[in-house]
Amino acid sequence: MDVAEQLKNDVREGRLDSDRLVELLVDSERQLQVAHQRIAELEQLPGPTPKVDEPFSLRSEEKRQQARGKKKPKDKPQVTWERRTRELLNRCLTEKREAC
Length: 100
Description:
Mean pLDDT: 82
Order of helices and strands: HHHH
Number of helices: 4
Shape: rod-shaped
Helix content: over 70%
Radius of gyration: 44 Å
Oligomer: single chain
Number of strands: 0
């Protein structure tokens, strides 16, 4: 049996007086007002962030694949004065050996 039907039967049969019925109605009204206030408070809060159509792991995997193909070109080492003189000296020495 439903709660409303039970209350109706109790009032008809005299097991529930009118004062108790009024107390129940007032209590229910208070609970309803509190619930409405809570709902209004929750509606004022910012909602969750919007969902993206594709899953996060798919996007990150695509980024990893793109980064895999893009490698920085290695810079040529700068030729210093010492390196240049050393190379010239070695070249001269090899030319002298070949001439002998």
